[in-house]
Amino acid sequence: MCLALPARLIERRGADEAVVELGGVRKTVSVALVPDASPGDYVIVHVGHAIGMIDPLEAERTLALLAELQQHELQQHVLPQRDANA
Description:
Elements: E1 5-13, E2 17-22, E3 25-30, E4 42-46, E5 49-54, H1 56-85
Antiparallel strand pairs: 1-2, 1-4, 2-3, 4-5
């Protein structure tokens, strides 16, 4: 299974590299496949490569769903373990 995540492009670095941000983490990725991407745009990132652009509203909805899933996972797995050790 492959997974690509939406990330906001922060800064272009030359023709083929850019800095993106996802969840507060910034990473340099290749933007060779999305040469028109500009700072502020959302791109889909897979294994260090921006492979496409995504509508900002769709990106925000996807990121919100991922955050909700993460919160659910924490409640189901981490918090019960913590309570059991108390």
